[in-house]
Amino acid sequence: MKIMVIVAHPNLNISRANRALTLELKNHSDIYVRDIYQEYPSWDIDVEKEQRHLLQYDRIVFQFPFYWYSCPPLLKKWFDDVLTHGWAFGPGGDHLVGKEFMVSTTTGGTESEYRSGGFNSFTISELLRPMQRTLTRCNGTYLPAFVTFNAIEGTDAYLAQEAKKYVEHIKAPMRELVH
Ligand SMILES: Cc1cc2nc3c(=O)[nH]c(=O)nc-3n(C[C@H](O)[C@H](O)[C@H](O)COP(=O)(O)O)c2cc1C
């Protein structure tokens, strides 16, 4: 299975959590990792290149810090630009049929804050629904997300441990993730 990770962090140089996750990914040469903020400093996304990449990979992971209960804006623009009518959905828009998609996000909030009645009122699964529906609307299979909670307070050791679990998660076959 060919895996591509699209990282969307506005500044990986000052990141702790996403940098730890990305560093671990670099130990796995079978995973193709890209940082779209670095690749597109002027936000001028090369749609054809992105679509070509999507065609080449079986599983696509979107990795980003959770910002205002969503993704950073360049990733939203990536969805808007790349998932075009007639290519990703609508008549002739069948290029993503059978692709597996996954989100990996890091949150400042703790896991217990992300539940009904908790500080953030909703679970991460609930808050990720617009992204889930975007990807299923484009005929993709949406797999369970990998979430690193408490990413600001978490120690370096915790983040390194999360990074190991992250790689296991994104390499796991669908039958292990969906049960
Ligand atoms: C603009 C902005 C918005 C944020 N919104 C949220 C949020 O909605 N929920 C949350 O749990 N953390 C939020 N945070 C905290 C980030 O998720 C946290 O700093 C990040 O996951 C840490 O990862 P990093 O070390 O890779 O930057 C926000 C941070 C910023 C800068």
Automatic annotation (TrEMBL):
The keyword Oxidoreductase applies. InterPro entries: Flavodoxin_fold, Flavoprotein-like_sf, KefG/KefF. Keywords: Oxidoreductase. One of its GO terms (molecular function) is FMN binding. SUPFAM superfamilies: Flavoproteins. Residues 1-169 form the Flavodoxin-like fold domain. It holds the Pfam family Flavodoxin_2. This is General stress protein. It comes from Paenibacillus elgii.
